[in-house]
Give the backbone structure.
Amino acid sequence: MSASAAKQTNTKPLEGLLVVSIEQALAAPLCTGRLAEMGARVIKIERAEGDFARGYDDAANGESSYFVWTNRGKESLVLDFKQAEDAALLKRIVSKADVFVQNLAPGALARAGLDSAALRRSNPRLITCDITGYGEGDASALKAYDMLVQCESGLVSITGTPEGYGRIGVSICDIGAGMNATIAVLSALALRERTGAGTGLAVSLFDGAADWMTIPYVHEMYGKGAPTRQGVRHPSIAPYGAYTTRDGRDIVISIQNEREWQQFCAVFLREPDVANDERFATNNARVCNGAALDAVIAGAFALLDVEQVLHRLAEANTAFAQVRSVAEMAKHPALRTWPMQVGDCELELIAPAVRAPWDAQRFMPAPRLNQQGAALREEFADVAIGEPS
């Protein structure tokens, strides 16, 4: 490897940038955690009792799985911005920052004179990102915990089985808001390279969830109605769902076009004439005759053990997936993990989804509460703050 290639590999894209975040729970910590992975220095401001996500569980060697996932590589400073001395310290730190992220309750920082607009007036190059549940409109006062937003956005109404609603099994609205905030910050950093000026950004959990609901929304407003709850079935493609083998394993198959359907019938079902049955000859026909279609396919699955099913699906070149448990996912051949020190143990955590030349191949630990507090107070003790323009 050449010296220039080695330097590029070891240089992270956000090295030298300072991110300050008054954050809690998941959305904002996930955003700033991604920025930390890209090399930014992230100072996490916490209240005296700490980010409440520290107490969500103790699955990670006695620490919270949520916290160690989203806060690795950060610095922790306990600060009460309602106190004049700490408010002044926060202003001094932010005056040197490139990015400021917060997900407090709407109006909390404004009441202390520390809203994003005021911070940008003091530091015109500052990029601010306010993460809320529902934006600043009539719904802004609603509590915005993840499952509540799943309900309000309609996600729950289309998730689950015909017999009952289902929550998406991870905190998808929080995660989506965190990723949207990351995209927004990176976009604003790119804009600042051209203009020299910071930007005020706003992201809400509801906006992200509503964006994902575009297809059901269009069907409801302009089509024949939003899709109903399908369980492990697709509302508009068939066959695309789970079928059970003779030995009790669920396998999802997906047919995307007529060529695949004909091949599935000939090779897997071993009944090529089924492909030309008028009930099943097109995708729309298969969707309309879903119960009859499922009966044919389920009958074939019920005669075969899982290994026979997988072999025959591969022979038919049919797309499939095994419905795996978390324990089975943990042994998946595609899963990548990196080590991270958590307390006195080294845990293997799931590696970042983006593979990049600057990957470190291991995670920095998440900070203890106020771990860098004394050092940060000393570092920013004498910083001069510019006057608002």
